[in-house]
Design brief:
heterodimer, A: 117 residues, three-stranded antiparallel beta sheet, 4 helices, B: six-stranded mixed barrel, elongated
Chain lengths: 117, 858
Amino acid sequence: MSTRKSEQERVSLFQGTLDLLILRTLAFGPQHGQGIARVIEQQAEDRLLVDHGSLYPALQRLESRGWINAEWGTSNNNRKARFYTITKTGRKQLTAETHQWRRFVTAVGRILGPEEA
Amino acid sequence: MRWRGTRNDEDFAQEVQAHIALETDRLISDGVSPEEARAAAIRTFGNITRTQEQFYESRRVMWLDDAQRDVSYALRTLVKNRRFTLVAVVTLALAIGANTAIVSVLDAVLLRPLPYAKPSELVAFSPGGYDTFREWTAGLRWLQSSGAYTYSLANVTGGVEPVRVRTLAVTSSLLSTLGVEPVLGRGFTAEDDLPHATPRLLLRHGFWGSRFGGDPGLLGRTVELNGRPHEVIGILPPSLEFPPPARSNDGSMPSTPDVWTGVGWLPDLHERSGFYAIGRLALGSSVALVAAELSVAANAATAPGRGQSPVVVHRVDEIVVAPLRPAVLAFTAAVALVLLVACANLGSLLLVRLATRQRELAVRVSLGASPGRIVRQMLTESAVLAFAGALAGIGVAWLGLRMLLTLAPPELARVQNATLNPRVLAVALMLAVVTTLLIGLLPAMRVLVRGTPQALGSMRAATMDRTTGRAHAILVASEVAFAVVLLIGGGLLLRSFAALASVSPGFQMEGLVTADILLPSDRYQSRGSVLRFFDRLEEQLAAHPGVRSVSAIDRLPYGPSFSQLGFHVVGRAAVTGPDAPRGFNAAVRPGYFQTMGIPVLQGREFTAEDRIDARPVVVIGRALAERYWPSASPLRERIMVFGVEREIVGVAGDIRHFGPTTPVDPMIYLPQAQDVTTRRMMTVVARTAGPPDALLTAIRAAIHTLDAQLPISNLRSFGTLRAERTASQRFNALLVGSFAVLAMLLAIVGIYGVMSFVVAQRTHEIGIRMALGARRSEVMWLVLRQSLILTVVGLFLGAAAAAAVTRFLKAMLFGLTPLDPTTFIAVSLMFGLIAALAAYLPARRATKVDALIALRYE
């Protein structure tokens, strides 16, 4: 019970940022779900993604908003996989959200002050 | 949100599998063994089910799909718990359907709005004479219009067969006051108010249809009335009922007269006194204002010195509705009780269901179902149930209405117009649906509020805990109580009706045939000719083998009312004013009492010797005799009637003219030969040896042998007449009985259903006991005990409540007190037995179960 609760907390906290991360990942090129998960895992030191499954609601949301498209294809090792690509609207959204995110980080950073050694 | 409808569960499932496969590949390439890799991949993915659920929820039009699945799951669940579903649906169907049917009929019969424009503005008063009416209403401020009317009789001759009809003579202002217009043609004008106007008439719609075939060409043509041609100037609307359908004491309603004429048609317009008036209130007026204004006018018209009692004015809708009020209240209470029983039923089912589903719900929650889903699922189940119940209810309503219409006495014409009343149906449906939804919601709420560990902890199929058990007990007991109240009330009313039906009217009704005859004055001018006609008719009929005796009277019991007259006892001080001796007078022919089966208690009845030139005689009724000669025999006393001293030669048994609930009539009988006026209108009565209907043709033939042109009306056996008069009472009895039966059915269904569940829950326990050696009867008693106790408690509560409440029925009871012990005891016993049976059957079934199976049952 308790595990689930805190897990839900963490997921909701990063839900908005998860969208951002996905779009960013896809900006570099089409990728399938597992691939996106790997990228996020690798690039972020902390475990932003508790489990891979929680990517999918975000993917569905982005897809329904038309920021990403999806299509079945084949992976490098000949596995069938569903590939996502960012759309033009998606790129615009990415730019806007990135901008917003950086401003947010700077503002918080100023308030918090330099990191204690 | 854009909806990608093309993606389905399959697709997403495949994507998930693909993801896991890819992750497995990666781990393998990192050096992990294939099985471990796959396990790790699955772990890393997380809760697959949850992800799928999330997919379902976000990728579809959520409610539609969920609803679909919920509905099919709901259906499966309901089918699995067959008995529960059946009990719930039957309860709903009965409560909704039967109630709606009964109330729809009630509505049609009792509560139909009056067929006039804005009936709440109409008032009624009795001016008595036509001239009085004109005086009173001259220059009236508080009535915007008024009209007067009076009854008469006439023969419609020419055409198929002559028939005597009731006529209504009306002022030209009457129809416009009512706001009614003829559906064809036009109404009367001021010209028709004057005597000797060109005779015109209006026809009642039904009469136009039955006698003239509804021929529109009749307009402008003439119809012969009393031998004179009258022009038909209009046809009244089919819905018109006038005079206002006020119930008389015995529950019968006077019918609308067939022929309407202008007041100018009456030969004795200024002399006769039976005028009634209707007025429409002016703006801002009221009954009090009108009464005051009329009283002033009345006083002004009377000679000074003589007091004039104030004019009484009634609202027309009050006259119609007031006598019905007790009945309407009683039926409303009945409806409420039935609905209460149904709600208690459903409530009981809820509690039982609560117990059985708790575990299932707990399991579902622990498997990951979100609270929202559970609530939605429960609501869907209830909605399906409510829907099924509502459908069934509508079906029952329709069927029930058909059944009631078939069973209704055909004499009650209004009944046949009854249709399903949408308002009632809507209320009942809403109530039922709300209750059902509550039923579904509570189990879910309970589980969610309480949390799951507790529910999971119970090993057996959940038994009822103490609060639930208490609530359950209250519901069952109150259900029984409500039903008992209704049954006792119904029982009282039914016994009243039965008593009414068996009251002797004072004469012998079996084997009696009657026919109304009106001798037209142009062909039977002299008294002698009238008497001779009846003499010869009696001879003819007496000669017929089927006829035991024959006579005639001018007013038959159960017919139009008697007229009152004042008399004066010779040798006593004269009394005037309201205490002056009064009685009802009737003119009869010799042998009347014998024919009617009225006992002659003292003296003799009239014979052929009591002619116009013989000594004037009267026969009086017993009530009159007892009132004015309490200690001595009235025989040989003389009373002054119609200005002539007459000797009392006989005392006859009492009759009730108006019906069983009315007091006895104080009668004064005169011989037809000695009556003041020549009574041309008589009702012939004949007592038959065999079945009365066989004689009807013979009587008609005999009359027409003497005079082929003579209209005969109301030729029938007395049984038919009585059936007509008691029709509405019988129908009330039918309705009351229906309610009582309905309540009982609901309560029984409820008890049976609940008992079934209780027993099912205790099957495990029963198995244990029987395996341990308990006898079947012991186990059964154990199981039954609680429900029997509840039933008994409910019976007592119900009886007590009934005792408190039945006093409101007092007005409708006849021959019984509101606390009649026989009814109370009989109802309690009967219901108790049936309830016990309803509880016993499931219990018996339970004990038949194999012990081993019962032990395994969870």
